Amino acid sequence: MAYDEALAQRIRDLLAGEPGVTEKAMFGGLAFLVDGRMAVAATGDQGVMIHVEEAMARELCAREGIAPMEMRGRPMREWVRSEDVGADGHLLEEMVWMGVGWARAQPPR
After folding, report:
1. Is residue 38 within 8 Å of 17, Cβ to Cβ?
2. Residue 65, domain CATH
3. 51 near 37, Cβ under 8 Å?
4. How are strands ordered across the β-sheet holding 29-34?
5. Which residues contact 101 (CB under 8 A, 6 or more apart)?
6. Within a 10 A sphere around the Cβ of 77, how many other Cβ atoms?
7. Angle at alpha carbon of residue 28, lines to 23 and 31, rounded to 5°
8. Using CA atoms, how far apart are residues 22 and 67, in angstroms rounded to an integer?
9. pLDDT > 90? residue 79
């Protein structure tokens, strides 16, 4: 699955000037790492996934349009995805900063 380049650019724009951000192609998407930790990724057509604490992931999944991330049929407890954040700039921004917040809260590598 190819990632959505327009969405990736919107994420870049949100993260502009944020220290410690790098990009890496992963899982057919484009991951944005913060201090070496994967925080958010642009996936297929207007899709995004983020890394958050497990309790926050459960809370987010109660919202319409957000679901647990699965890899090879197995749920990833600290990852959530939204398949269409394109029309909702607020949701994209919220999800990006949640992922960044998770990454910044982790101990240094």
Report:
1. no
2. 3.90.1150.30
3. yes
4. 21-26, 29-34, 37-42, 48-51, 74-82, 66-71
5. 52
6. 14
7. 25
8. 25
9. yes
Ranges of H-type helices in the chain: 5-15, 54-61, 89-105
Q: What is the pLDDT of residues 34-51, one digit of tens each?
A: 999 999 999 887 789 999
- For residue 87, give its domain range: 5-105
Question: Are the C-beta atoms of residues 82 and 97 closer than 8 Å to each other?
Answer: no
- Count how many domains the chain has: 1
Enter the tokens of residue 85: 């954040």
Q: Which residue, chain included where needed, has tokens 């190819």?
A: 2
C-alpha closest to that of 98 among 75, 76, 82? 82
